[in-house]
């Protein structure tokens, strides 16, 4: 059956899957499991005769791609990122897109994405997406903020040992035929002090691993956090820098963290200390770091992330990309890695599973639990016995009177459950109504979606 769609709406529906996004979503999944053990959920089908199309970029886990295809969705999967212009030319036919860190979803891209319902970032960060513009167009954004925490923490531990033993220098020398066995400037990490900037999931896991190696752990965070083990929180970044033999960064990119480590902060670090950045490329002022390494104030550094990064494997990392690249590459005892902090088989599999579940659960059930830019709303599934029930998912501008209009439209029906929430300028309401005839849907849809506050309305049935 085909339902007319007003100019200011989009509408499709899909089949559901279970979803879990860490603490809240695991709890929600357990609640759903306890229900569906007794009462099987209804498989929701599109009201509009249009199949879901997904665009998956940047060599995302094949397990996630397979999961989407198992649900009968059309998936186009590409190994590389796309430029803004490439996306604009292609995205208009897709209902969902999955990306990693190199593809940028800008406001221009979103304006061209006339059918887009959801964005999945198969990585930790979401700064590659214009989150506010996505919210304004009714598109929630999901990510996987914790799945690669262990992988990043283990990489940091490897870098600590490699830096303190000048491992990369000795290895390079031997590969060029030079035997240079020495102990000068090489240290055990046992008994040294590790300063962690940002005590989130990665920082906390790293804290435990570091103490197992015999390191003393300090951390700085903008909020007060209960430490694990014997770690100790310090009040200021300057205090952490002054006490630490190694400083490792684990903060998001934001206006407050861009160049948070620059000349002033580097001068506050201990002479002969080390800086590690596996967070975001713009957190460190690289020219200032180069100067601190060249004048000997720092003994070494490890950098996994950069302000500008190549769009694909094999592309050059040179001065055209970052004007200081050749100088940085020539410095001794500097570990440079191509943004591989979370690049393990385990992490990518977990990220693929988690984000695929989130996208599927939004497309199929309307749940926005775990969305980074959207009100978080969820309802328990419609059961298989409720054959004449439909779910209404209504994204609208957060202004007075909208719920009154929605409930007036629903007044002829039994509203079995309803939940709404708002975040900033965006509000979202989900409602399940019973005993609905398909003949009534066009008029009902028009009444709900034709209000001046409407952004996007979907019917799942």
Q: What is the structure about, briefly put?
A:
The protein has 15 helices and 16 strands. By secondary structure, it is of the alpha/beta class. β4 (118-121), α5 (131-136) and β5 (141-142) form a beta-alpha-beta unit.
Terminal Cα span = 12 Å
Please mark out the parts with pLDDT under 50 across 5 or more consecutive residues, or reply none. 1-22, 28-39
Number of strands: 16
What CATH architecture label of the largest domain applies? 3-Layer(aba) Sandwich
Attribute tags:
3 domains, NAD, (S)-2-hydroxyglutarate dehydrogenase activity, NAD binding, Alpha-Beta Plaits, single chain, 32% helix, 461 residues, D-isomer_DH_CS, D-isomer_2_OHA_DH_cat_dom, alpha/beta, Rossmann fold
Notes on the structure:
The protein starts with 21 loop residues before the first helix and ends with a strand. Residues 1-22 and 28-39 have low confidence and may be disordered. Helix 2 (62-70) runs parallel beside helix 13 and helix 6 packs across helix 8 (201-212). The chain has three domains: 40-147 and 342-374, Rossmann fold, CATH 3.40.50; 186-298 and 305-336, NAD(P)-binding Rossmann-like Domain (Rossmann fold), CATH 3.40.50; 376-460, ACT domain (Alpha-Beta Plaits). Helix content is 32%, strand content 18%. Strand 6, helix 8 (201-212) and strand 7 form a beta-alpha-beta unit. The protein is built from 15 helices and 16 strands.
